[in-house]
């Protein structure tokens, strides 16, 4: 067995070493190219020159940044060889263009064919160096997994016929898929205890159980006539922060999307990840960090002005925080400028607001109209609690009611909640649980079509909503 961090470190270290070698080899080739005038007679003098040494220090770091953003390191095991090839080609191509137009701009040659030759050599050296070691590591890991030398402790949710069928299929495979079943969780569907080969555990304190058994994957395998129990189970699984696999027939009851984790044996659907690629997720997070950091600097004077107005308008703190449920069903505190009188929920029962809510202060109505009260959430975005675009985070009190009617709400846990969303743009604030469910349909559409372009469109629509004062 090998740890995820150790395997990821192999890829990162090998990529960095090979990036250095590729850049060094390129400089050697460039020195001997007759069409490139380096100005040096000896190779060692050229390689030890100031510009080349600076390039040797920084160029591999630029390459590594591109490799990280490509999402290659997000998936450690179970890599698709074909996807690995495509990811490597695309990221190396991007690196080639970046390096050419930054470090090699002075080497642009009179003949276009010579420039193409220079670019091709840079691309070829990078690709050969990077892909050769990546393929070696991936092939070695796949071989170890298939031969059951490497495996991942897996907990099966369910202890009925489907759990037994899944276990037999995994154990009888000639080439292992890496799932080493170590136990089952009884969710009350009727046990086949005499036939199940491993221990059955009660459905309580799953977090402790997963830590005790060193669980790396969770597979939901419940009997067809007990699928209704999935609604409650799914909410317990996301906070465990482990990959969750399901039988495709079970997941189909939640939503029609089916993303297979393998094409062999019984189809398993990865319910813990969304449709956007690993590279897309990394880019989305990078944009979140950059935009939120800049926004916090720009909006600081605006917040200061409204802080004074809030204090003059009513008694109480300037900022208001409230617990919401976010990524993987983890609670966090969302921050807002206070728009209501203090003790607005003095009886302890959550209440949704409306445009004529008497709990809203005069200045609060103005801030809500232009969504100024949401500005402090850029801090939540910078921290990683939220994203610029994503489904709005709700309170657990309302989530329980939503899931009773729309169990597919659990899919919202796949991504970080957002400052704005397609649901907020098209529907706006919800004043009841039924309206929340109606708005949820837009968020489901977003989940299935996530991309940086879609995010940009939603942000533009949000800006127009704010400018025109249609926030309420």
The description of the largest β-sheet is: 6 strands, mixed
Give the quaternary arrangement of the chains.
single chain
* Low-pLDDT stretches: none
Radius of gyration: 27 Å
Task: Give the rounded overall mean pLDDT.
Answer: 86
Count, helices: 16
Shape: flat
DSSP E strands, number: 10
Placed side by side, the strands forming the largest sheet appear as 3-2-1-4-5-6
Polypeptide structure, described:
- With 472 residues, this protein is of the alpha/beta class.
- The protein has three domains: 4-146, no CATH class; 152-270, 3-Layer(aba) Sandwich (Rossmann fold), CATH 3.40.50.720; 278-467, no CATH class.
- Helix content is 51%, strand content 10%.
- The protein is built from 16 helices and ten strands.
- The strands form three sheets. It has a six-stranded mixed beta sheet with strand order 3-2-1-4-5-6.
- Helix 1 (4-32) packs antiparallel against helix 3 (50-69), helix 1 runs antiparallel to helix 5 (112-146) and helix 10 runs antiparallel to helix 12 (377-383).
- The longest helix has 36 residues, at 278-313.
- The protein is flat.
- The relative contact order is 0.07.
- The mean pLDDT is 86.
List keywords for this structure.
single chain, 472 residues, alpha/beta, Rossmann fold, 3 domains, six-stranded mixed beta sheet, two-stranded antiparallel sheet, 51% helix, 10% strand
């Amino acid at each position: 067995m090998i740890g995820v961090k150790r395997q990821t470190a192999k890829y990162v270290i090998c990529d960095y070493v090979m990036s250095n070698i590729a850049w060094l080899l390129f400089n050697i080739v460039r020195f001997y190219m007759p069409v490139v005038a380096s100005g040096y007679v000896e190779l060692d003098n050229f390689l030890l020159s100031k510009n080349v040494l600076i390039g040797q220090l920084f160029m591999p770091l630029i390459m590594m940044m591109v490799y990280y953003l490509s999402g290659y390191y997000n998936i450690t095991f179970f890599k698709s060889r074909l996807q690995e090839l495509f990811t490597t080609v695309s990221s190396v191509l991007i690196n080639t263009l970046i390096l050419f137009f930054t470090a090699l701009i002075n080497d642009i040659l009179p003949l276009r064919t010579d420039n193409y030759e220079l670019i091709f050599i840079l691309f070829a050296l990078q690709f050969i160096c990077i892909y050769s070691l990546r393929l070696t590591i991936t092939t070695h890991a796949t071989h170890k997994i298939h031969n059951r030398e490497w495996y991942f402790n897996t907990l099966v949710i369910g202890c009925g016929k489907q759990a037994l069928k899944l276990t037999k299929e995994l154990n009888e495979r000639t080439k292992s898929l890496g799932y080493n079943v170590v136990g089952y969780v009884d969710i009350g569907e009727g046990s086949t205890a005499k036939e199940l080969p491993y221990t059955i555990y009660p459905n309580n304190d799953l977090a402790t159980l997963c830590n005790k058994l060193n669980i790396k994957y969770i597979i939901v395998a419940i009997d067809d006539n007990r699928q209704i129990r999935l609604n409650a189970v799914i909410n317990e699984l996301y906070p465990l922060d482990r990959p969750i696999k399901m039988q495709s027939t079970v997941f189909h009851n939640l939503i029609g999307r089916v993303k297979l984790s393998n094409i062999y044996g019984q189809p398993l659907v990865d319910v813990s990840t969304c449709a956007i690629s690993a590279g897309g997720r990394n880019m989305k997070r990078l944009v979140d960090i950059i935009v939120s950091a800049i926004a916090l600097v720009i909006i600081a004077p605006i917040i200061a002005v409204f802080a004074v107005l809030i204090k003059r308008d009513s008694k109480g703190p300037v900022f208001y925080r409230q617990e919401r449920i976010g990524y993987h069903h983890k609670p966090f505190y969302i921050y807002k400028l206070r728009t209501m009188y203090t003790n607005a929920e003095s009886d302890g029962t959550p209440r949704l607001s409306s445009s004529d809510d008497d709990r809203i202060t005069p200045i609060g109505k103005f801030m809500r109209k232009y969504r100024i009260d949401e500005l402090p959430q850029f801090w939540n975005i910078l921290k990683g609690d939220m994203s610029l675009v994503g489904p709005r985070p709700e309170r657990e009190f309302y989530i329980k009611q939503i899931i009773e009617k729309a169990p597919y709400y659990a899919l919202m846990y796949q991504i970080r909640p957002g400052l704005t969303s397609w649901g907020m743009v098209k529907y706006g604030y919800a004043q009841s649980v039924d309206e929340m469910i109606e708005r949820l349909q837009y968020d489901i559409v977003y989940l299935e079509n996530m991309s940086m372009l879609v995010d940009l469109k939603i942000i533009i629509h949000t800006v127009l909503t704010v400018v025109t004062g249609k926030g309420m």
